[in-house]
Each structure stands twice: as structure tokens, then as C-alpha cells.
Design a protein that fits this description.
- The structure is a single chain.
- By secondary structure, the protein is an alpha+beta fold.
- The protein has three domains: 2-86, Jelly Rolls, CATH 2.60.120.10; 94-291, Rossmann fold (3-Layer(aba) Sandwich); 293-427, Elongation Factor Tu (Ef-tu), domain 3 (Beta Barrel), CATH 2.40.30.
- The chain is built from seven helices and 26 strands.
- It has helices at 94-107, 121-134, 190-207, 224-237, 247-257, 279-292, 321-331, and strands at residues 2-4, 8-10, 15-22, 27-31, 34-45, 48-51, 55-58, 63-78, 83-86, 109-115, 139-143, 156-162, 176-179, 212-216, 241-245, 264-268, 298-303, 308-310, 337-340, 345-348, 360-363, 371-376, 382-392, 397-402, 410-418, 424-427.
- The strands form four sheets. Strands 1, 2, 3, 4, 5, 6, 7, 8 and 9 form a nine-stranded antiparallel beta sheet that branches.
- Strand 5 and strand 6 form a beta hairpin.
- Helix 3 (190-207) runs parallel beside helix 4 (224-237).
Length: 433
């Protein structure tokens, strides 16, 4: 059990400070914000051993099980909402998780991790990576959760060649990113873009000699379309290992895989108590993630004629001069650009123009401000993260806020709208540029 030696409250800083003596073999449950300092002994969190003189900070958005490896004295600083307590034997499956991680690392190959929101997918992916690193394996981790990606901004997925143990994947950044442009696979064209991007990143990881490739997925799970997407991921990736977090979730997958000997299915129990993140918490996490990629952003402007603009209903249609001239006369307002498709006509007009013509798709410059984009190199690879600051049809240029300073040959337009405070304002379900 936990023995409190010197507990006291620090009223000015709103934290609780204590020193604990803990027996070997005990499992503690920690909900952040908490700072843990090991004064004597040794504890283990997510495959990381923390010994004398070392400490660790746990975010308010995270919760972990701590395994006490030998009699230990630890210092604890609890922030507002943080807690530390004994876990009952059936509440924290950390031993089962570690045993599974050891079996998977011995098998090697590709690992696909599935489950509902807050089921521990990212925590297990991190544990698996840490244990693989401990064994000296070359580890590649693909974060394919576009809504809460830890290795890249939301709306992207990322591949990271893991070279050190971490407690939270946000301690590192992806080596290679791919732009999806949505916050959920269920939105718009996200599904097809996700599938192709995950396959591409897995192929890159294999070509670089990764011995264990971990693919962590989003929490869209349980309804028909979600299950079909996850089964399609299994079909195209053909992973040697499929991990499903939670017995209820596993029922959706196990019958579909029962006749295939190519892979092994692991159904893992999930902790009884976890740090739950509500919708606002998730928005705040996305805001923090976006702001990390724009701390040193500057404004870069590009002429329309110097770059390609992808996934834009205005720039990717057929330019029809005769139609443009006809619409100019008919509408009696300035028309910047027109694009024709088989099923629609797209027209760009000034912000103050009024057009009551329902068979036209109207674009106005101000609508583009705040759209999340990816910057592309000459090989059509995503190399930078940006947000549209302005588009000027008279100057024929588009200006982007970005930290990326390299060559830009194209801009890939997403549907996520970012506000001035880097808080996402939602998804533009209609094309706005």
C-alpha cells in the first residue's frame, strides 16, 4: 500500500505535495497533472524505468499505471485535478499489456491498433514502441489519428522512426507527414486519402528497414462504416499483428479475421479508470498542437502562375473563357475566375458582391482565410504546414502563414478552418476556394 510520509497543501500554488513509501509489486494509478520524483528505489511507467534522482511530468490529459519494481520512496506534486492512488488487481492491466507487447516485439512485422475513443490505443502504442526500443529493434510508428494526431498537427498523419523511449508521443515530431485535411475519416474525402497515405507510410517504413511498424488509428469505431474502414485497413496492410483495445470492441473484428492465419489477433483489456477527455479538452489539445507548428510562422505569398493548387474547386476545374465572358455580362458584377465541371460552375467574386443564382457555386476571397493547407515540393510530397492568410485575385497571389522556408511547388487545400487563436472552428463541408 501507499504510506504517506509528509503530505501538505501549498495553498498559494494550488498543488498538493507529498512523499510516499511504496512496497515492491504495487501498482499505482496516476491521473495528471502530476510530477513524480523517485527519491529511492525504482518504478516503471510504459516500459520506462525511473530510478533514484529521476522524475517525470504527467499532463492533465493523461493517466498511467505505475508498477513499483522495488521498495521505493517517491515525491509527488499534484496539480489541480491530479491524483495518485492504489489500483486494485483487476483495474490496471499493465502486466497483460507488457506481456502482449513482448510477444508482439518477438513476432515483429506490422501492428495495427484499433479501438474506441479513450480505450488506450495511443498508450499501448507508446508502450509497444518503448519495449521494442529496449530490445534494440528498429521501430517505426505511424500516427493515423487525424483528429488527435500526436506526431503532427490535426488533419495530418505522420511517420516517426522512434529512436528513444517517450511517455507521451507529443514529446517527438513526425519525420514524414501526409495531409488528409479533415478531422475524422467519416468526413468528405478523408477515407480514401487516409487509406492511401497509411499504405504509403507503411511502405516507406518497410523500405527503411523498420523491424516493427506500429500503426495507431483513430477512435471512430463501432458503426458500420467505421468497421468497414478498419477492416479495409487490415486488408490492405495485411498486418502480422492486430491489437484491439477492449473485449467489446474485439467482437467487431474477431469473427472477420477468424479464418485468416496470416495475422494474430490480440484482444486487450482496458483500464477501469482513465483520464477522460471531453470535447473541449480535445479542442484545447488540437489548439496546442496547431500552435506548436506556427510559433515562428511568417507570411509567404505565391503567385497563382508559380504553383499548383490542389483540392480546390476553383483552381482545378476547366477554364472556359467564353463562359466567363457570358457570366460577366449576365451577373453584372466583377468576376475574378470561373471553373467548369460536368456537374457545377464555380465563380469567384468580390466579398461584397451579391448573386442570387442557385445554379452557380460562389467563392469569395474572405472565405479562404484560416484554411489549413499542406505545402508540397516538386515530388508532390507534404513538406510543410500552413494556414491561408489571404487570397488576392487581382494580384493573383495566395498568402500562407507557415514556418516552412523551403521551396514550394504546390499547395494542398484542406477543409479545416483555424481561428486567430489557433483554435479550430470546424470543417468547411463546402468548398471555399
Amino acid at each position: 500500500m501507499i504510506h504517506t510520509i509528509v503530505p501538505h497543501i501549498a495553498p498559494l500554488s494550488n498543488v498538493s505535495i507529498m512523499r510516499l513509501n511504496v512496497e515492491a509489486g504495487k501498482v499505482l494509478r496516476v491521473l495528471g497533472p502530476v510530477r513524480i520524483s523517485v527519491e529511492k528505489g525504482r518504478i516503471r511507467i510504459l516500459g520506462i524505468d525511473i530510478e533514484n534522482g529521476k522524475d517525470v511530468w504527467i499532463s492533465r490529459y493523461r493517466s498511467y499505471a505505475i508498477k513499483v519494481l522495488e521498495p521505493s520512496t517517491i515525491g509527488v506534486v499534484l496539480g489541480i485535478g491530479g491524483s495518485i492512488e492504489n489500483a486494485q488487481p483487476d483495474e490496471e492491466p499493465i502486466d497483460i499489456w507488457e506481456n502482449t507487447a513482448n510477444e508482439i516485439t518477438n513476432r515483429g512485422g506490422k501492428v495495427l491498433i484499433l479501438g474506441f475513443i479513450e480505450s488506450g490505443k495511443t498508450t499501448f502504442a507508446t508502450l509497444l514502441s518503448n519495449i521494442a526500443i529496449e530490445k534494440g529493434l528498429n521501430v517505426a510508428l505511424i500516427d493515423a489519428d487525424i483528429g488527435q494526431c500526436d506526431l503532427a498537427p490535426p488533419g495530418f498523419i505522420a511517420l516517426k522512426f522512434m529512436d528513444r523511449k517517450v511517455l507521451w508521443l507529443r514529446e517527438v515530431a513526425g519525420d514524414i507527414i501526409r495531409f488528409i485535411g479533415y478531422l475524422s475519416p467519416s468526413q468528405g474525402a478523408a477515407l480514401s486519402r487516409l487509406l492511401s497515405s497509411v499504405v504509403e507510410l507503411v511502405s516507406i517504413a518497410e523500405s527503411k528497414g523498420a523491424e516493427l511498424i506500429i500503426v495507431n488509428t483513430d477512435g471512430w469505431f463501432g458503426d458500420f462504416e467505421a468497421i468497414q474502414y478498419k477492416l479495409q485497413l487490415i486488408k490492405v496492410l495485411k498486418p502480422e499483428n492486430v491489437v484491439v483495445m477492449g473485449e467489446d470492441a474485439c467482437r467487431y473484428i474477431e469473427s472477420a479475421l477468424s479464418k485468416f492465419s496470416l495475422m494474430k489477433l490480440f484482444c486487450l483489456p482496458i483500464p477501469k479508470v482513465v483520464r477522460k477527455r471531453d470535447r473541449e479538452d480535445r479542442r484545447q489539445l488540437r489548439k496546442a498542437n496547431y500552435s506548436n507548428y506556427f510559433q515562428k510562422a511568417r507570411r509567404r505569398c505565391f503567385k497563382f502562375d508559380d504553383i499548383s493548387i490542389l483540392n480546390s474547386c476553383l483552381f482545378n476545374g476547366v477554364k472556359d473563357a467564353e463562359m466567363h465572358s457570358k457570366l460577366q455580362q449576365e451577373l453584372n458584377v466583377p468576376i475574378y475566375m470561373t471553373s467548369r465541371y460536368d456537374d457545377s460552375i464555380v465563380v469567384a467574386v468580390p466579398d461584397d458582391a451579391y448573386i442570387d443564382k442557385r445554379d452557380l457555386y460562389i467563392i469569395k476571397p474572405a472565405q479562404a482565410k484560416g484554411l489549413l493547407v499542406a505545402l508540397l515540393n516538386s515530388s508532390l510530397e507534404d513538406v510543410g504546414v500552413g494556414v491561408i492568410d489571404s487570397i488576392d485575385f487581382e494580384k493573383r497571389e495566395i498568402c500562407i502563414l507557415t514556418e516552412y522556408e523551403g521551396e514550394v511547388r504546390g499547395i494542398d487545400i484542406g477543409r479545416i478552418i483555424i481561428g486567430k487563436d489557433w483554435m479550430d472552428k470546424g470543417i468547411a463541408f463546402k468548398c471555399v476556394i
